[in-house]
């Protein structure tokens, strides 16, 4: 029995990055021997075991043969005779197809170390195109390692462009898992740009792909910058401010209603209606990919009301109360910080950004504090009952905000 540290742990060691988890491959063993040694079997499709003490994953060396559609359409063969080189051959990228033996010697049959030095994401073999999930994985790695100047090898990108016909066989859960991981990288916009370039965006995210298809002449009637560039630019800015998944996803979906609005502008759709047009598109996207309700709901609210967040200090007391209500800030104070982050992203890069940031944050927190400190007990003591309590609470909160704003004019 020989044990090898494989995959991301090896790659990240060579890149001098923190190791998040360790995966191992065992050569020359069998399921029964692993069980006899105290390992717990957890893999159903192929033999994967948990170490009895540290619970790290140990998989028996295996080969794969394409037998169906999608990323699950494989027949796995695990046998004591399978070598570490054969096991690494089935992996996606050369930088993920390396191993360390127990003596610390690097096993690198497909030149992953060379590609790390060249900063290239290159496929291991021709079998790369058998798994459509790899299109998303490569796009995610491009986003994750963009800050280290990694790019996709031209020949790998060609293969990705030829694999789009199988993307529809991917499960919604797997698509969202890869997308969620990409969204929390330092450069999430790279993920979507790569998918666009290889033709996957229009298949998996048609709502986003449409942003790239607005005729320039139509866009210029509404905004001096192309909408998809604006979306990617805003996503880039937001990534500099926060890794909050809710905030990043809401920025990604913020302008989904814009193409419908621009295409129907001749029908005199009101300007703010393009925000409402985006809500059903976000809903469709989230339902299709089974995106969690919390993330979806927040994105829909941001899409409809993000005009409120361009300059919070200009909001009237009624608009402030509307903002607190629709974002459910009363029960979820964390939403205040998220609102500020979205507002910040709108202004990041402006000359007076730091002053703007301080003023916006201070204004919003002060307004919320004033509205929230109105005691309901006083309203009840004054004889209000039932639904009239909430009506009177709103009236008093609005009055307090008006007094505060008038003092600070």
Automatic annotation (TrEMBL):
Answer yes or no on keyword Plastid: no
Residues engaged in binding Mg(2+):
21, 23
> Which reaction is this enzyme known to catalyze?
a tRNA with a 3' CCA end + 2 CTP + ATP = a tRNA with a 3' CCACCA end + 3 diphosphate; a tRNA precursor + 2 CTP + ATP = a tRNA with a 3' CCA end + 3 diphosphate
Domain spans labelled HD: 227-330
**Residue numbers binding ATP:** 8, 11, 91, 137, 140
InterPro entries, alphabetically? CCA_bact (IPR012006), HD_domain (IPR006674), NT_sf (IPR043519), PolA_pol_head_dom (IPR002646), PolyA_RNA-bd (IPR032828), tRNA_CCA-adding_enzyme (IPR050124)
EC? 2.7.7.72
Which family is it part of? Belongs to the tRNA nucleotidyltransferase/poly(A) polymerase family. Bacterial CCA-adding enzyme type 2 subfamily.
Functional note: Catalyzes the addition and repair of the essential 3'-terminal CCA sequence in tRNAs without using a nucleic acid template. Adds these three nucleotides in the order of C, C, and A to the tRNA nucleotide-73, using CTP and ATP as substrates and producing inorganic pyrophosphate. tRNA 3'-terminal CCA addition is required both for tRNA processing and repair. Also involved in tRNA surveillance by mediating tandem CCA addition to generate a CCACCA at the 3' terminus of unstable tRNAs. While stable tRNAs receive only 3'-terminal CCA, unstable tRNAs are marked with CCACCA and rapidly degraded.
Name by which UniProt lists this protein: CCA-adding enzyme
Query: From which organism does this entry originate?
Result: Candidatus Blochmannia vicinus (nom. nud.)
